[in-house]
Amino acid sequence: AAEKLAEQAAAEQAAAKETAAANLSKALAGDDLSTLEVAINEAWLQWLDTQEAEEDLSRRVVAAEEAAAELAIAERAVAEKAAAANLNNAMSGEDQLALWTAIGEAKALAIDTKAAEEEFVRRDLAVKKAAAEKVSAEGGADGAEYSSNKGKGKFKGPPPPAKGKGSPLPQRKVPMLPKRLGVPAKGQGLQLQQGRRRSKGAGKQGKSKCTTAEAVPKQARSPPPAPQWSPAMGLKRVQEAFQVNCSSAVDAQAFLEGLRNGLACIADRWEDGSMQAVLADTAANATRTFQHASVDVGLTNVGAMCDFVSAVAAVIAEGRST
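and the corresponding structure tokens:
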């Protein structure tokens, strides 16, 4: 029985060696580096000679790394060429947003953008200067028109015939008011009383019931309506921010999924009470660490920060439940 078991084990080992050798030969004939590495490990476990296969694997790995490096260099060269072309087109155009985007893309590829940035600043100053001159010109024209029309009527020619009785007044002359009691002299103008009129003998106490006009309270101006917001608008702003600042596109599906997972995690931590415990421990650790600090590190605002985080987390949890 022992001899049979030994023979069976020897046969199985011989079959495993043949299989490992066949797999190694097949992997050497192929181009998959991971398959070749696995075949070498299996052959080594079966006590097969794998020195040549390992050397071949090392040569292939080096060649693959060199090819990857060359490909990366070629891709970068293409990207640099495209970014430089976009930058030149943007500088020759008039779109400031396109120029700013092209500058960001060129900076990401370490392209010199000093001239483009100076051009962007020059255009921005020119736009602001033109706007200021336009406003100043409009204001000067309005002032000149007001000065030219000041004291003049809108129509030329003799005055219209009088409809009342008596002889008409000479042109460009003002009738003299008769001197009456309470009427000021010439050149002083008429003094009109505004607000509350006090009766005789009332003094400054204002007990008289005779009033000409009551003070009308000013109505508070309502604030302008808030701009309408939607998830699509928020996603668009995020995409624009990434495009301008990072010169990279945002995967909308992945971004929304990550945002949804993050909000769900916040709601879970708030509902199971772990977030409240973490906030309390954080506030206690901050107080214990910085309570004897010689400068103000914002320790007095820790409570307000914890309240703000708690309020936001509570709203997120409530929004999910509803």
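(Above: one complete record from the training split.) The CA atoms of residues 198 and 279 lie 65 Å apart.
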